[in-house]
């Protein structure tokens, strides 16, 4: 599933191609792709809308229109493609927006888990999300206090989008290793110094992921290089880059979790 760096990569790549284009038609080829509003209201509202900007909030792509926000969550297998508008639809195309300039923005989704929202109020969809890792609210002090208020295992808490927006399995494992924190450690056991290290690690691994266009480890997302720089994720049985200890994989909150048993211990 694309995480913050992968969605940020999509936004940066799509922005120059989309900004300034006008939406001429909307072909919703699988109605359940649309979470909000109804298909009839969607088609009526989006026609003639000019694309003003393309950005990201958490794992959501945000296409800012004149009067609305088009939010897209790619989930397991979603992809966004710009095609010549004369090209015929393919099997897994779920939504096709025909644009001015003889181009189309295509949402292709093999597994049908991805969703699209058209809303005039982003908070309607995104209001429950936690702070952005690069936002002003996310400080070491905030993180330390929030960790102690929640009293949960570290990894499941960091994956909780209502706690902190944008992290997924890959970047959580990488950040916890960099900060030398065990994924099952109690959040309220983290010291102020450890919270500072975790804060720095989260931002560092996300910046590294963005710089390398994300990680390409799933058949649905290609083009990134961050998988070549993993510290622990997907490296079970190989040597920890810090101490040489064999990296282990365990199940935490029903998610495969990679860590170094020497660098990351539980107090």
Outline the structure in words:
By secondary structure, this protein is of the alpha+beta class. The protein has helices at 4-18, 39-46, 123-126, 140-150, 154-159, 169-178, 192-211, and strands at 23-28, 34-36, 51-57, 60-65, 69-73, 78-84, 93-99, 103-109, 115-119, 248-252, 255-259. The protein has 2 domains: 4-126, MutM-like, N-terminal (N-terminal domain of MutM-like DNA repair proteins), CATH 3.20.190; 140-229, Helicase, Ruva Protein, domain 3 (Orthogonal Bundle). The strands form 3 sheets. The chain has a 5-stranded mixed beta sheet. Strands 1-7-8-6 form a 4-stranded antiparallel beta sheet, with helices on one face.
> Strand-residue fraction?
15-25%
Order of helices and strands: HEEHEEEEEEEHHHHHEE
CATH homologous superfamily classification of the largest domain: MutM-like, N-terminal
If you consult CATH, what is the topology of the largest domain? Answer: N-terminal domain of MutM-like DNA repair proteins
Spatial strand order of the main sheet? 2-9-5-4-3
Helix content: 25-40%
In the CATH hierarchy, the architecture of the largest domain is Alpha-Beta Barrel
| Number of beta strands | 11
Distance between the termini: 32 Å
Structural Rg: 20 Å
Number of helices: 7
Mean pLDDT comes to 96
Query: Which class do the helix and strand fractions yield?
Result: alpha+beta
What's the number of structural domains?
2
Q: Unreliable segments (pLDDT under 50, ≥5 consecutive)? A: none
Strand count, sense and closure of the main sheet?
5 strands, mixed
3D shape: elongated
